Amino acid sequence: MAITKRVTFIAKEGCEEKMKELLSAMVVPSKAEKGCVFYEIVQYENNRRKFMAIETWADEAALDGHRASAHYAVYKSSYEPYCEKKYTDELEVLG
């Protein structure tokens, strides 16, 4: 069963460009992963400190593979100094 998530990041004041750089670096390699159905990261136009990743993985094994990837390890070890808040929502796709 596919897994869809929305991950929201609020950058610390003055860290918007660094968060944008770190998150943008995730897009191309994540899309190339086995089991990636959809992966995009957006920055809000009306709040430049706010970012959202929307991702769908074919199954739990694909999501586990993503979490074990080298680019995920770089992101995971680098984002916290620039991020004020992060939260994840599990989504159910209707239709």
Question: Could you explain the architecture of this structure?
Answer:
- This protein is α+β, with helices and mostly antiparallel strands.
- It has one domain: Alpha-Beta Plaits.
- It contains 3 helices and 4 strands, in the order βαββααβ.
- A hairpin with a 6-residue loop joins strand 2 and strand 3.
- Helix 1 (16-31) runs antiparallel to helix 3.
- The two termini are 14 Å apart.
- Residues 3-91 form the ABM domain.
- This is Antibiotic biosynthesis monooxygenase.
- Keywords: Monooxygenase, Oxidoreductase.
Number of helices: 3
Shape: globular
Q: How many beta-strand segments?
A: 4
In the CATH hierarchy, the third-tier topology is known as Alpha-Beta Plaits
Strand content: 35-45%
The helix-and-strand class reads: alpha+beta
* Whole-angstrom Rg: 13 Å
**Low-confidence spans:** none
**Residue share in helix:** 25-40%
